[in-house]
Design brief:
The chain is an alpha+beta fold and about 180 residues long. It has four helices and eight strands, in the order ββααβββαβαββ.
Amino acid sequence: MEIYSKNLTLHIISELELTTNYINWLNDKEVCKYNSHGEQIYTKDMAKNYITSVINNPVCEVWAVYHKKDNVHIGNISLQNIDKINNSAEIAFLFGEKKYWGNGYATEACKLLINRAFKDLKLHRLYFGTHINNLAMQKIGEKTGFQKEGIFKEAQFKNGRYNDVVRYGLINKKG
């Protein structure tokens, strides 16, 4: 299955994405500045185990994001903690190809996944949390309709200290 937009193609992650570039993203301090990665050295075996664990997993979908024109894997976007009882899921992002940063591709991918979550999966609510200083992620949330729900004090341990996490939510108004 693939999802398309003007600039992007998304497909469910597979071992095709098990490349040196992908593994390097997870070891890059700038890429992992605000997320849960980067606290330990990430290996090819770890990446393979992760990909294997999410394929056909009923509580998550991880999509590889490709730039259409260049056919380059620029990031991943996922629905995690899919809860069929409450019809909700967490949305998460990892965009590692820095050359493609700042062009709106994460926002474009987010819109595609929101559409999938609400129309295809019939979810009622999406949410995400991000480091208080991750302004880029907060802007993506705001551009795609998410509402700030609150701040979780010292909820993330990153770079040797506890940091606040801003939580956002989006309700499916059409469902």
